[in-house]
Amino acid sequence: MPRDGGRELDALRLDTSAFKVLCYLSFREGGLKPSKIAEGVGEKASTVRARLTELKSAGLVSATPDGYVSNLTPYDILMKLYREIKRELRE
Questions:
Q1: Model-level pTM?
Q2: Which of 8, 9, 45, 85 is least enclosed, having the fewest CB within 10 Å?
Q3: What CATH code is carried by the domain that includes residue 82?
């Protein structure tokens, strides 16, 4: 489970722009500005900024002087995907 934000991460649905933004940041090094994140995930910059605000409030990302960074590791994201797959297989 992530150091911080375990429940918040589990509450994110995989098909949301917030999860796309979080995944993108979790697999990148260093801070990224919203416009760069928007390019990377194929979303409008305004959408990305709104999702970053939500993710920051949930403790899943942090704002740095260089841009936004994920508070999660790639492992945290992979484990969320694993849990979702397991849940889907049980249904």
A1: 0.89
A2: 85
A3: 1.10.10.10
